[in-house]
Amino acid sequence: MTDTQSVEPAGGAAQRRTRIDRRREKRDPWVRQVEISPFPRVLLEEEGQRVGMTRDHSASGLCVRVEAAQAVGRLLRVIVRDVDGRPALESVGRVAWCGPAGGGASWVGLSLLASRRLRSTRPTQRAGAGLPLPG
Q1: Number of helices and strands in the chain (H, E)
Q2: Integer Cα distance of 82 and 120 in angstroms
Q3: Mind listing the pLDDT tens digit for each residue in 24-73?
Q4: Contact criterion met (CB below 8 Å) for 54 and 80
Q5: What does the alpha-carbon distance between residue 80 and residue 71 come to, in Å, rounded to a whole number?
Q6: Rg for the chain, CA atoms, rounded
Q7: How far apart are CA 99 and CA 51, in angstroms?
Q8: Residue range 69-113, pLDDT digits in tens
Q9: How far is CA 32 from CA 6, 29, 92, in A?
Q10: Is residue 116 within 8 Å of 90, Cβ to Cβ?
């Protein structure tokens, strides 16, 4: 079974270690709000936008918790929002795997194919910080 065919295990540390051991890239914990929708775009009435949360990320992908399972191989438009709610990354992703997350939700592994960073996700200095106060 290849990484793109595997399903995230529902439980068991030994099973999780097996999946992690096969990864080619380091994953970092990273919690951000994510919006996914079909790509190419369809009418929102047909299949709307879904909101989820990231669990982790790497240089080439994300793990996202969403309320509905996604078919392996499906293309999705992905928008990752920064901690302040503004869009930070827009991408087209391919579903690499999908597995149960509990409570009817699913973990979805996304391989990012084409990305555009909309703004930095690094902490920045507040506007006006370090400037002298008026008066």
Answers
A1: 1, 7
A2: 9
A3: 778 888 899 999 999 887 655 566 788 999 999 888 899 999 999 999 99
A4: yes
A5: 20
A6: 17
A7: 17
A8: 999 999 999 999 998 999 999 999 999 999 999 999 999 999 999
A9: 24, 10, 17
A10: yes
- How far apart CA 39 and CA 129 sit, in angstroms, is 41
**Which domains does the chain possess?**
31-117 (2.40.10.220)
Check whether 119 has a pLDDT greater than 90: no
Between CA 91 and CA 82 the distance in angstroms is 14
SS3 assignment, position 14: helix
Asked whether 95 and 70 are in contact (CB, 8 A), the reply is yes
- DSSP assigned state of 5: T
Q: Are 53 and 65 in contact (CB under 8 A)?
A: yes
Structure tokens at 59: 């240089």
Round the average pLDDT of the chain to a whole number and report it: 76
Residue 17 backbone phi and psi in degrees, to 5: -60, -40
